[in-house]
Amino acid sequence: xxxxxxxxxxxxxxxxxxxxxxxxxxxxxxxxxxxxxxxxxxxxxxxxxxxxxxxxxxxxxxxxxxxxxxxxxxxxxxxxxxxxxxxxxxxxxxxxxxxxxxxxxxxxxxxxxxxxxxxxxxxxxxxxxxxxxxxxxxxxxxxxxxxxxxxxxxxxxxxxxxxxxxxxxxxxxxxxxxxxxxxxxxxxxxxxxxxxxxxxxxxxxxxxxxxxxxxxxxxxxxxxxxxxxxxxxxxxxxxxxxxxxxxxxxxxxxxxxxxxxxxxxxxxxxxxxxxxxxxxxxxxxxxxxxxxxxxxxxxxxxxxxxxxxxxxxxxxxxxxxxxxxxxxxxxxxxxxxxxxxxxxxxxxxxxxxxxxxxxxxxxxxxxxxxxxxxxxxxxxxxxxxxxxxxxxxxxxxxxxxxxxxxxxxxxxxxxxxxxxxxxxxxxxxxxxxxxxxxxxxxxxxxxxxxxxxxxxxxxxxxxxxxxxxxxxxxxxxxxxxxxxxxxxxxxxxxxxxxxxxxxxxxxxxxxxxxxxxxxxxxxxxxxxxxx
Length: 531
Known about the structure:
Elements lengths: L1 E7 L4 E2 L10 E13 L4 E12 L7 E3 L1 H4 L7 E2 L8 E14 L4 E18 L9 E20 L5 E22 L13 H7 L4 E23 L4 E24 L5 E27 L5 E11 L2 E2 L12 E2 L2 E14 L4 E20 L6 E21 L4 E16 L1 E2 L2 E2 L11 E14 L2 E12 L17 E11 L5 E8 L7 E7 H4 L1 E6 L4 E8 L2
Parallel strand pairs: 2-6
Antiparallel strand pairs: 1-3, 3-4, 4-7, 5-28, 7-8, 8-9, 9-10, 10-11, 11-12, 12-13, 13-14, 14-17, 15-16, 17-18, 18-19, 19-20, 20-23, 21-22, 23-24, 24-25, 25-26, 26-29, 27-28
């Protein structure tokens, strides 16, 4: 049995009297695991879990400040919505293992998940009612994986498997635009206000059911060509189907009265087949170091646009994504294993990347494909065990992205950077044991994480660019000599850096940019006991 519970006040200060601070924490989760060894050749593992999140929702940082945030600090908001976010999950999984011989094992994994989500977003981030969106979702999933694994103890081994996945989703989303705008001179918002002031003082609500199924057969093989060279490869055939049914979008008065049907009842479907695979080679050097190279092709099934609201033409299916990946790397250790260095270089040929495009004038969201992009870069991880008391960990990444062909909202984005792709990242941690004796173990663990500038959208709007920044944190730990008790003083974002985690242009239609911001400085004390 395992469980966790967390509760914390919100850090996004709400200045509206009587309204709660946003971005709070209120959650718990429980998991139970049952292991059964029915015999020497038959084993079962049953897991069940449930979780609930019920905090006050995150807050939106709306810009420009002069129009949307007058007199507010960076982490202050004037929000009129106090509805809590509610996310509920349930899951059950059974893994059954059968040793059919000394060299062959059959493994079956059966999993079922169910979840629901509701939250009411104050999208404009103000006490007014310019743009607010409630989201309501329910989903269930079932997955079955069955595989045969060999362990011959020789140069050749394999995995053969079959997979099935079924996902059913219900979604309802509502755009609430200008609910506090009175268009007919009569106090109060009614259906007449929507009819006169369309789209102001209206609700735009869409809803649909979605069913996706995925069938696959796959293989993974390993063959030791020599004592130092191993070939690895595999193939996967996938058949995906999807049906989006009962899609409907309506314009409603704030009192729920139907004003106009914008997208009548409709359905979409797709059927897609794909063959993907991988081949690679490992080369063992003297001393256990490893060089490797691989070529693989990945695939993502088509997707439906869940954000169609105003016109049937918004109903669309995005093409499947495909990525061809080329990678080389090395895993090495030096100086009697005191230094570990792992490096990798990669090149991705990215076709038909799926993404949501937000129209800054209407806030309509369309699902698009970028026909062709390329990504290349490298990563390195270095660990130095300088002594029994001092260890240094660090990591670095360099990344270059470029859209080679594509357009968004009629704008040619060829040559632009992909979203959420900083060109340089770096992190470092120090583990220093100050003393270790009868009084216990006392250690220091400072850390830093840095990333260069990035865009959050493919139009690469300069004002929506997040400049480079670093986050500094760490923890000071104590553990008793017998290992039963421990305590830690910790801090995150100690310099209280203000930074954005996502940004969307809504300036033309609504007069603001829609932004999410990162957590502020946080610090605390943790204590623990083992029994």
